[in-house]
Amino acid sequence: MAVVKDTVERLSGTIALDSEPGQGTRFTIRLPLTLAIADALLGRVGTEFFAVPQSAVREAIEVTAAEVRQIEGHEIIPYRQGSLALVRLAQLFGIDGVPPARFHVFVIGSGAAAIGIAVDRIVGQREIVVRTIVDPLVRVEGVSGATDLGDGRVVLIIDPAALARVVKRRTARSFGSSSEWGRIRA
Questions:
Q1: What's the chain's Rg over C-alpha atoms?
Q2: Residue 147, class by beta-carbon neighbours within 10 Å (0-12 exposed, 13-18 middle, 19+ buried)?
Q3: pLDDT single digits (tens) 41-95
Q4: What is the pLDDT of residues 128-137, one digit of tens each?
């Protein structure tokens, strides 16, 4: 019961007991309405874990390092008769380590707006409790919140739409108004 009480309190909720001899015990747990539970795919980069909302993932693919191409300082991979801009979470969050020869990519978005989020390995699927990050000093573009895995490890929840905007801005600066990026993406 202490674990349940601690978990409920960490979620800014309350727990109450109402017990009557011979009748039983009623537990009442109240959680804030802002609490959200979502299905997510978990990816690992080095020793860090990240959650990507499953609703945003179109598919997950495996890629070899040999398939990655550099164009104007940006990584792309071949994808369905075209190419896909790649966002490596290791680079985005400054995670040291040797990139694996084979890695996984969560494909998000569609058409020209599609991007790939690269992780070393897909760990699995999980229901997560979404905790938004409300402190403006802690806000990180591309992160919508955090959760924990139940063993004390904090996991950042990736915001795919924000990452897509980051990639779009980055490529627009590199390619300017040229139509080269359009040819690459097509």
A1: 21
A2: buried
A3: 999 999 999 999 999 999 999 999 999 999 888 899 999 888 899 999 998 889 9
A4: 888 777 666 6
d(CA 41, CA 57): 8
The one-character DSSP state at 56 is G
Q: For residue 11, what are the contacts with CB-CB under 8 A and spacing of at least 6?
A: 31, 32, 35, 129, 131
Amino acid code (one letter) for 48: E
Hey, what amino acid is at 75?
E
User: What is the distance between the alpha carbons of residues 99 and 97, in angstroms, rounded to a whole number?
Assistant: 6
Of 120, 128, 154, 156, nearest to 140 (Cα)? 156
> Collapsing DSSP states into helix, strand and coil, what is residue 162?
helix
pLDDT of residue 172: 65
Distance (Å) of CA 174 to CA 1, 72, 87, 114, 124: 56, 7, 15, 18, 35
